[in-house]
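ok so I'm stuck.
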Amino acid sequence: MPIEQDLKKLLVESMKAKDAKTTSAVRMINTKIMERRTSKGFTGEVDDAVILDVISAYRKTLIKAKEEFDGVGERGKEQSEELAWEITFCDRFLPKGLGEAEVRAAVAAAILATGAKDIKMAGRVVGEVMKTNKGKVEAGEVKKIAEEELAKLGSS
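replied:
not stuck anymore, here's the structure
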């Protein structure tokens, strides 16, 4: 079932069940999808790939907001918990990410493919990994691992 239909079905079910949290989360995702659909320069169809991209971008903003609330301490605890729930809700639509070992393997393959020899070429390696594993890896994690692996190459 396409994700958009799944979201509509989930919205109806959550409204009938009077589940305000789920209803709110689905409505927010639908709003983000509509923003993308009507954004300047967007042409084409809103398919599952676009919806996954929208949900992924929304999830990243939730994570940033959660980190800010976590930094406030006790005053931000309630909002942080709400955001954690919403992040988990978004996760159910996104493809499962790669584990650390899989990311390390992807980085090693990208280093071979790009011919990277030192840490200055980490950006190319990260770009290659992100391109081949779109939506399955976080750029920050890939960058950290790429820099570690390239530092090993540079020192040997």
